[in-house]
Amino acid sequence: MIYIAPSLLAADFGNLNEEIERVRRAGANYLHLDVMDGAFVPNISFGPPVIESIRKKTKLFFDVHLMIKNPQRYIENFVRAGADSITIHVESTSRVADAIQKIKDYDMKCGIALSPATPVSAVLPYLSSVDMVLVMTVEPGFGGQEMIPECIEKVRELKKYINDNGLSVDIEVDGGINAENAPLAISAGANVIVAGSAIFKSKTPSKVIKQIREAEFKMIDYTEA
Ligand code: DX5
Ligand code: ZN
What we know:
Blueprint: E1 3-6, H1 16-25, E2 30-36, H2 48-55, E3 61-67, H3 75-81, E4 85-89, H4 96-105, E5 109-114, E6 132-136, H5 151-164, E7 170-174, H6 182-188, E8 192-195, H7 197-200, H8 205-214
Parallel strand pairs: 1-8, 2-3, 3-4, 4-5, 5-6, 6-7, 7-8
């Protein structure tokens, strides 16, 4: 099954509840929440108070993507705010295992993210202890960028490792994903698709979500290429 996770970063922040309801009705499975601290990435977005406020209005699964330095300091705040899953960046702390353990101590779903320049080998040691690996397909920090095609190769590598080792780990792709390039990511092995601009900036988000889902049945066979 393909999970669609619209990124709230592309929503109209003046109308958050209506915006969330719009994508929920359009068929979203998750709400992807991009938390940025102006230190790990050169941008600031929102934090626990905003998440806590929208938590009161929707039952959508909150997929929290932490782009913050030393995320282990703030896990409890995001748990209390209402996260369902917390993803940290492998580059954001020297204590990755501690941060993962902290998330799991709260019985939370846990993800590990890697930026475009980070090799797959950096996350392999953690794959047996997480539920999801998030492959950034743009430089983290801003929505509305173009997907970097080279990152899709990392999805393929991860999928192979996960299968070869009998692990059960979701692969999420994040950054510049739209209905046109989603088939590439899905064919490579991604099953959680983040799309910010492509969904929130569309007048017909249900069409975009449907098209992305259909990508599963338009798998590209690389052996023929
Ligand atoms: C980038 C964020 C992404 C981004 C996705 O740092 O992690 O989630 O908001 O937005 P689009 O789909 O517009 O690239
Ligand atoms: Zn994100």
